[in-house]
User: Fold this.
Amino acid sequence: MLDWLFELPQTSPVAHALALLALVCAAGMAVGSVKMKGIGLGSSGVLFVGVFVGQLGQPIDKPTLNFVKEFGLVLFVFAMGLQLGPGFFASLRSEGLKLNVLAAVLVISAGVLAPLLSWIAGLDRAAVGGLFAGASINIPALGAAQQSLATLPGMSAERLALPALACAVSYPAAIVGSLATLLLLKVLFRIDPVKEAETYANERRRSFEPLMRRTLVVQNAEVDGVAVDEVCRRLAEGIVISRIRPAGEAQVRAALHGTRLGIGDVLLAVGTAKLLDRFERGIGRRTEEDLMSAPGNITFRRIAVTSSRVIGKTANQLDLESKYGVEITRITRGDVEMTAVPGLRLQFGDVVQAVGNDEQLEKAANELGNSLKKLNETQFIPLFAGIFLGVLVGSIPLVVPGLSNPLRLGLAGGPLIVALALGRIGHIGSLVWHMPLSANHAFREFGIALFFAALGLAAGDQFVAAVFSPQGAVWLFAGLVTTIVPLLAVGIWSRAIDKMNFVTLGGLLAGGTTNPPALTFVNNLCNSEAPSLAYATVYPLTTVLRILVAQVLTLVLCG
Assistant:
C-alpha cells in the first residue's frame, strides 16, 4: 500500500524534494528547540538532522540542493541586513568604532590561525574555508567559501564537499568553545555578571537624557514679540514649544512656529533637562502649573508615518502648521525619542507626537498615513528589487593583485551589503524597504533552515566517514583553537587593559563570532538583554569581513 511513497523520487521528484526538505526542517527545528540551561542549537539543529538523513543516501539531486542552499542563504542575509542597516553606519562611530575594531581583530586572527593550523596538520587546503566558517560560527562565510571553491577549475566533487564537512565538524565544537571561554573570563576576572549588568544599566541611564516637559512664564523682554521658532533657535536648539496660553487668556492653544511670544505668556517646553535649564534662563521663570490639563480646545496624538509622500521630508517641509494648525513636537524612532528639530527627516515607521485640536489632528494623520496595516505588512516589490540588486553586486568581479581569480562578494556578501545600504536609506521614491520585525525574523529563520537542510543533505553521505577519521579529529582540534585563542586574547585585553564591562564584552565576543547561542548564554548570565546592543553593533561588519576572509583564504590557498 505504501509503494507510491517509496516510488515518489522517481514518479514526482519535485514533490519528493519539497516533502523531504520540509521534514528535515521540521525535525531540525524540533531538535534545535531542546535546551539545556537555556542553551540550544536553534536553527543549527536542521544541519545535523540533514546530515543524518543524508547518511541514508543522496535523496535529492545536487542542482536542486544547490539552488535551495543559495536561495535560503540570500533570504537570510538580506533580511538580516534590512534589520541591522539603520543602526549599522552609526555603529562605526565613537564607542561602536572601538568595538568593531576589536571584532575585526577576532576575524583576522581566526583567518590567520585556520590556514596555519591546517598547514601544520597537513590538511587539504580546500577545507580551510569551511574550517574558518565553522570555527567562526558563521554560515554566510561557508557559503562564500563554497562559491569561491566552485569557481576554481579542476575541483573534484569530493574536494567541493570538504568545506561543508569541516564546518559541520568544527561548528558545534566552536559553540562549546565560545561558551567555555566566556566562563573562563568570568572566573579569571572574578566577574559577577548580574552586578555588571546593574552597573551598565546605571551608566546608560546617566548617558541618556530623556525628554521632559516644563511649564515656563515669559518674563524676558528680549523675547517679547519674537516668533517661537526664532526663540528656540536663539536660546536652545533642540527645544520644542508645544502649547501656549497668552497672557490674560484662559484657553491653551497650540504653539506654532509663527506664534509670537509676549510678556506673561505661559508656555509648555519639551526637551532634555540640560536644554530646558538653559531655555528657562532665557525665557523667565518656571511655574508648577500643568498646561497639559489646562482648559482649551487642544490635545495631542501619536501618529505613525506610513505615507510614501512624506518620507524623507522634515517637519518644516511638511508645513502642517500652515495647512492644519498642527505642531509636531516629538518623533519616536525605534526606542529613541527625539524633539522634532527642524532638520530631522521622517522615516517610514516613525511615530510623531502632534499637538492640535481633534479635527486638525485627523487631517494631519491622513497626510502622514497612520496606517497600522502598512506598518505590519511586508513591501514585496522593494524586497525582490533589493535581492536582485544584491545578486548583481555580489556577482561583480573584483580583481585583487596576487589572486588568480577575481574576488566576489557572492550570494552571501552582495545581498548583505545592499540590504545594509537600503535599510539605512529607507526608501527611494515610493519604494520603501520596511519589514516588520516578525516578518523579518520569519524570513531569516526560513532562509537559514533551507540553507542548513540543503547543506546537511548534500554532505551527509560523507559526514560519518569524515568525522570518525583522523582528519575529522584534526578538524575538531583546529576548530577549537581557532575559536578559543582569538576570543581569549581579545577578552583578556578588553577586560584587563580597557576595563570593559562584562555586558559589553560578552556581546562583543558573541557578535564577533556571530554566535546566537553565546549571546543567549551571556544574556542569561547577566539576567539582562543588554549584551544584545554590543552584539548588534559588531554583527554586520563581522559578517561582511568573515565572508571576504573565507573567499580570500579559498582563492589564495586553492587558486
In short: The mean pLDDT is 82. The longest strand covers residues 212-218.
